[in-house]
Amino acid sequence: VSATSVGIDYQFDNTDYRLNPKKGNRLNVITTVGTKKVKKNNEILALKDPSDPAYNFDRLYDTVKLNTYQFRLQAEAAKFFPLGKQSTIMAAVHGGFFQSGNIFRNELFQIGGYKLLRGFDEESQYLSRYAIATVEYRLLYLSGQNSYFYVLADGGWGTDASKQPHLNYTYFGIGIGLAFETKAGIFNLAWAIGKRNDTELNLRQSKIHFGFVNYF
């Protein structure tokens, strides 16, 4: 598969402090559009079926669009609501949309883990579309300007359009976390438990997530 695309990235941030905001808004939108070409595999075309020598393996490509388009969009928006002198509530939404004549597994968004949808393994959820909401209560400035304790809740839905029929999921996760300041950056530790609509809630499958943000 070969693809050619162009994209636009837009960012907006008017928070009071980039690394550990108490109030303000953030927005990030990334979009790409382009064309995709599927090349036939010569090794597949050369295959022979001993039980049916006349069969042409080129027919395997009959249901595949060899030349098609692709469109990808990701967006994140967050708002921070200050509560008193040392607390804030962060409310955010994250969305992704991928559309193409053919959708393959390696083209899907991979979410789950520390960055998005805590309570699930890192990048374990393969989705062509998703919408995830996040709410965090943060107790700020515990041991420095960049340290805070937080309680989190993530929830939303996703679709895997690479399968037929399409697979649809709903997600929910809750947990707690701690971000603390070091000389090199901010270390983030979170414990969370997540549930997908086709699984049972199991405390033994809760996850511990680690993250690190470098200072620049």
* C-alpha end-to-end distance: 37 Å
The side-by-side strand order for the widest beta sheet comes to 1-2-3-4-7-8-9-10-11
Biggest sheet, in brief? 9 strands, antiparallel
SSE pattern, N- to C-terminal = EEHEEEEEEEEE
Number of strands: 11
Give the CA-based shape.
elongated
Number of helices: 1
- Rounded mean pLDDT score: 93
The percent range for helix content is under 10%
Residue stretches low in confidence (pLDDT < 50, at least 5 long) are none
In percent, how much strand structure appears in the residues?
over 45%
Radius of gyration: 22 Å
Structural class: mainly beta
Describe this protein's structure.
The protein is mainly beta and 216 residues long. Helix content is 2%, strand content 57%. The chain contains one helix and eleven strands; from the N terminus they run ββαβββββββββ. The chain has one helix at residues 42-45, and strands at 2-13, 24-37, 67-83, 87-100, 109-111, 125-127, 129-140, 148-160, 167-181, 185-196, 207-214. A nine-stranded antiparallel β-sheet has the order 1-2-3-4-7-8-9-10-11, with no helix packed on it. Strand 3 and strand 4 form a beta hairpin. The longest helix is centred in the N-terminal third of the chain and has 4 residues, at 42-45. It is elongated and about 75 Å long.
